[in-house]
Amino acid sequence: MNWKQLLSAKRWGYEARQVASDLAARSEFQRDYDRLIFSSPFRRLQNKTQVFPLPGAVFVHNRLTHSLEVASVGRSLGRMFYARMKELNPAIDEAYPFLQEVGNIVSGACLSHDLGNPAFGHSGESAISFYFTDGDGAKYQEQVSAEQWADLTHFEGNANALRILTHPFFGKDDKGFALTYSSLAAIVKYPCAAIDGHVKGSHYRKKYGFFKSEKETFELIAKELGLEKDPLNPNGYLRHPLVYLVEAADDICYNIIDLEDAHHLKLLSYEEVESLLLPLCGDDNLPQRLATLIDKSSKVSLLRAKAINTLTTACVEVFVQEQEKFLAGTFPLALMDSLAEDIVKQMKLISKISVEKIYNAPTVVQIEIAGYKVINALLQEFIPAYVKTIKTEYDKKLVALIPQQFYTDREDTYSKIQAVLDYVSGMTDVYAIDLYRKIKGITIPSID
Fold it and tell me: Per the confidence metrics, is the pTM higher than 0.85?
C-alpha cells in the first residue's frame, strides 16, 4: 500500500465531482469533519453512555464528549506524524500532496468511530446480540444466511458506523454522508465480515468491520484506496494504516480519562490516580508543580494532560519508525501495545485497576443490566411487528412508531431486522428508557 493511493479525496457517491483546489477555504477532509459535527447521529451521542450513567450533579463523559476528545488527540497524532515526515523529507508534499491532511482525516474518523454504538455503552451491543442468541430472536436463524446471522448475533458498533455513514436511508440522501473514501476507511478497525471475525491472536480480526449489507460498499472503498487483501482471509482486507492512529487516540482517551471520571465520582482517590498517571508523565519536575496546586481536580487534569502528551509522542515515533510495516499491513499490534515496555506495563496496570474499581462499580453494572432489559424489550416488540407479512392492529401501531427513514422496501427478513436495529441502535439512553416505559404501560404519554 502507498500513501498516494491511500489518501484519496474522492467522495462516496460523488466520485466524478471535482476535488476542491488547494486554495479552498476548507479541504475535502475538513468538510468531512464539519458534516459529522453538524449531523443528528453525532449530536445524539450526548445522551449515550460512555462508561458511567449519564450525570446528575457530577459531570462525567458521554459518547459525544469522548468522541470530541478522541478527535482532538487524533488530530494531534496526525499532525505530529506529518511534521516528522516533513523533517525526514522536506519535499514529501510533492510525492504525497494529501499527507498534510492526515490530521484532518484522523480527527474526522475519530469523531465517527462511536457513531454506531447503541445506548447503554458496550452493554447495548451485547444486549442486541443476546436477543438473537438467547432471546426471542433465535427463531429468525432459519430465515437468514450464515453471514447475516453472524451480523445479528455479534452486533458491532464499528460496523454499524460504516452503515450509518453510507446507507441510503429512506427519504434521505442516497449517498449517505458522502464522506471521502479515506475518512470512511480510517474508521474500519476490523476490515472483515462478522463470519470471518472474532479470531484469537489476530489484531485486525478481533471483531469485524462491516455487515453483510455493506460488504460491497467496503470492497469498493478498499479497491479505490488499494487496501491489500488479507492473506489469511480471502474475503477480508488489511487495515488502512490510519486506523492505527484512530485506534490509538481512542485507547489513550478512554484509559486516561476514565480515571479522571472515577476521581470525580470518588471511586478512586487522588493518591490512586496520581500513582497511576505520574509514571506516564515523563516530567521530573511535575511533583513539585503538583505540590503548588490545592485543588485536586486541577492536579488530576494536569496529570491527564501530561500523560496524554507522553503517549501521543510515543505513538507517533513508532508509527514513523515502523511505517513500512504499517503500509505493508504486517504490523501485528495496536500502537499502544507496541510502546516502550515501562509504558505498556503501566497501561496494563491502569486497565487492571479500571476493571476492578471502575467498570465493575455498582452504578456501571446497574446501567448495563438496565440496558439489557430495555433493549431486549424494544426488540421483542418492534422486530416481530415489522418482520410479519400479515400484521395485527397492534403490530401496525408499533410499526407506526418507527420513523419512516428506517423503513425498507426489501422483503427479506434480514433487511427488515436491520431496519429495526437501525432505529433501536440509534436511540439515546433517555429516549430508549422513555419509549420502553410507554409501550410497557409504565407511564402514559401526556397530551398537551
Answer: yes
**pLDDT at position 410 over 70:** yes
| Cβ burial 322-355 (10 Å sphere, 16+ → b, else e) | bbeebbebebeebbbebbeeebeebbeebeebbe
| Torsion sign (Cα): 216, 220, 225, 226 | positive
Q: Cα–Cα distance between 438 and 440 in angstroms, integer?
A: 5
Exposure b/e, 19-34, CB count within 10 A at least 16 = b: eeeeeeeebbbbbbbe
Residue 130's nearest CA partner among 376, 422, 421 is 376
Dist CA 308 CA 322 (whole Å): 21
Domain range for residue 369? 362-439
C-alpha grid cell for residue 320?
514513523
DSSP state of 17: S
Predicted local confidence at residue 59, as pLDDT: 63
Total domain count for the chain? 1
Any domain includes 166: no
Domain annotation covers residue 421: yes
Q: What is the DSSP string of 352-367?
A: HHIIIIIITSHHHHHH
With CA atoms as reference, report the closest residue to 404 among 213, 172, 176: 172
For 304-354, what is the HEC assignment?
Answer: HHHHHHHHHHHHHHHHHHCHHHHHHCCCCCCHHHHCCHHHHHHHHHHHHHH
Residue 16, pLDDT > 80, answer no
Q: Residue 154 has what pLDDT?
A: 94
Is position 386 within any domain? yes
Is residue 22 pLDDT above 70, yes or no?
no
Q: Which of 51, 209, 27, 20 is nearest to 108 (CA)?
A: 27
Burial (CB < 10 A; 0-12, 13-18, 19+), residue 317, is: middle
Residue 16 class from Cβ within 10 Å (0-12 exposed, 13-18 middle, 19+ buried)?
A: exposed
Torsion of CA 171, 176, 177, 180, to 10 degrees: -160
Q: Please determine, for residue 388, whether its predicted confidence score (pLDDT) is greater than 90.
A: yes
CA distance 380 to 131: 8
pLDDT digits over 303-325, tens only?
999 999 999 999 999 999 999 99
- Residue 342 has which C-alpha cell? 515501562
Cα–Cα distance measured from residue 119 to residue 376, given in angstroms and rounded to the nearest whole number: 12
Count CB neighbours of 430 within 10 A. Answer: 12
Would you list the DSSP string of 161-221?
HHHHHH---TTS-TTTT--BHHHHHTT-SS-SBGGG---TT-GGGSS-SB-GGGHHHHHHH
For residue 330, being part of any structural domain is answered with no
